[in-house]
Write a structure and sequence with these properties.
Blueprint: E1 4-5, H1 13-23, H2 32-45, E2 49-53, H3 56-66, E3 74-77, H4 84-91, E4 95-98, H5 110-116, E5 121-125, H6 136-145, E6 151-155, E7 163-164, E8 167-168, E9 177-181, E10 194-198, H7 201-211, E11 215-217, E12 223-225, H8 236-246, H9 249-266, E13 270-271, E14 278-279, E15 285-288, H10 292-301, E16 304-305, H11 317-320, H12 330-338, E17 339-342, H13 350-363
Parallel strand pairs: 1-16, 3-4, 3-5, 5-6, 6-9
Antiparallel strand pairs: 2-10, 7-8, 7-14, 9-10, 11-12, 13-15, 15-17
The structure holds pyridoxal-5'-phosphate (PLP).
Length: about 375
């Protein structure tokens, strides 16, 4: 029996060739491929600057540091996300507030953000869940109304290739910075990896420094360490894979949207809806089922390795110590109680889709 996972990378001969060439080149890191990858991301997204890093988690962390988020500050993010969207703020010393999601998309609800704004709010981290963009115009309006500067840092780990209105996610038209992930389950991969885009030169320079020990190069061998930075650099081997993967992104997007449309039409299960402002490169396809635990185990027996995205972050033991508990974010908790992500990846054939739908209908 063919086994299907909820997600899978797609690596072809060109990817292998690109990696091998770089492996034999003089630079394995800090070389030309990283810059070439960054330029390619700028070209694709329309952003002015890009800083490639070794994961989206690192990218979110240095985005926090570049925005000056620290002790005494608050950030607002979605509870329906991967841990890193919130952890980055804790790593920078800040307090994490959550704002509940919209049932239609499981994306952060701008009206809920308003309720959690305080004088201490320093950043909003909207997460483009499943690849569908949040309502960025609404979020930008809220941030601009505040007396203090509130940074908007998009967690676009799911959303490379997606569009919001007429702009590519990552263009930073409605935000200060956008963070992508290139982990193998995401739409394009570099093994591990991530990138931060921005249009702000000052933020760009800070991101560059934080990525590499806080060093600012002056000339020749001279450098000044101004901030306390880390080593969050991406290798040229990873960047070479990223350049090659990025060339296939539009093809990936087309197929991913076809698969989502097929499931929507043929499964008869409750699913998220796409907003009119969105043109998503879908990363995940969650459906809502009555008895999720039973469904999960039956699916496993039927050769479908599905996954739950996500346990709401505020319910994690680490976040409960700050007083969060069940009932705080009812929409996120209701979604979590029933959600399960079905297989969604580029090389699923039409025959695979038919087979997956057949197996699911069998276990319902
Ligand atoms: C995967 C993911 C991350 C972390 O990405 P890494 O590259 O694995 O560090 C952050 N946020 C969200 C929403 C994710 O799905």
């Amino acid at each position: 029996m063919k086994v299907y996972n909820y997600g899978k990378q797609y690596i072809d001969k060109d990817d292998c060739k690109a990696v091998l060439e770089t492996l034999k080149s003089p630079y394995l890191t800090c070389g030309p491929k990283v810059q070439e990858f960054e330029k390619a991301i700028c070209k694709y997204t329309g952003a002015k600057y890009c800083v490639a890093v070794n994961s989206a988690t690192s990218g979110l962390h240095i985005a926090m540091l570049a925005a000056g988020v620290g002790v005494g500050d608050e950030i607002i993010t979605s509870p329906m996300t991967f841990l890193a969207s919130a952890n980055c703020a804790r790593l920078a010393g800040a307090t994490v507030k959550f704002a509940d999601v919209l049932p239609k998309t499981a994306n952060i609800d701008p009206n809920e953000i308003k309720k959690h704004l305080t004088k201490k709010t320093k950043a909003i981290v909207p997460v483009h869940f499943t690849g569908q963009s949040c309502d960025m115009e609404a979020i930008q309006k809220i941030a601009k109304k505040a007396k203090q500067k509130i940074y908007i840092i998009e967690d676009a780990a799911h959303a490379i290739g997606s569009k919001y209105k007429n702009s590519q996610v990552g263009s930073c038209k409605y935000s200060d910075m956008t963070v992508f992930s290139f982990h193998p389950v995401k739409t394009i991969t570099t093994g591990e990896g991530g990138a931060v885009t921005t249009n702000d030169e000052k933020l760009y320079k800070k991101l560059l420094a934080y990525r590499s020990h806080g060093m600012h190069h002056t000339q020749d061998w001279c450098y000044d360490m101004i901030e306390l930075g880390l080593n969050y650099r991406m290798t040229d081997i990873q960047a070479a894979l990223g350049i090659s993967q990025l060339k296939k992104l539009n093809k990936f997007k087309k197929r991913r949207r076809e698969i989502v449309a097929y499931y929507n039409k043929n499964l008869g299960l409750k699913h998220l809806e796409e907003e009119t402002f969105s043109n998503a490169c879908f990363h995940l396809y969650p459906v809502l089922v009555k008895n999720r635990k039973e469904f999960y185990h039956k699916a496993k027996k039927a050769g479908l390795n599905l996954q739950i995205h996500y346990i709401p972050v505020h319910l994690q033991p680490y976040y409960r110590q700050f007083g969060y508990k069940a009932g705080n974010y009812p929409n996120a908790e209701e979604f979590y109680a029933h959600c399960i992500s079905l297989p969604l990846y580029y090389d699923l054939t039409n025959a695979d889709l038919k087979e997956i739908v057949r197996r699911i209908k069998n276990i319902l």
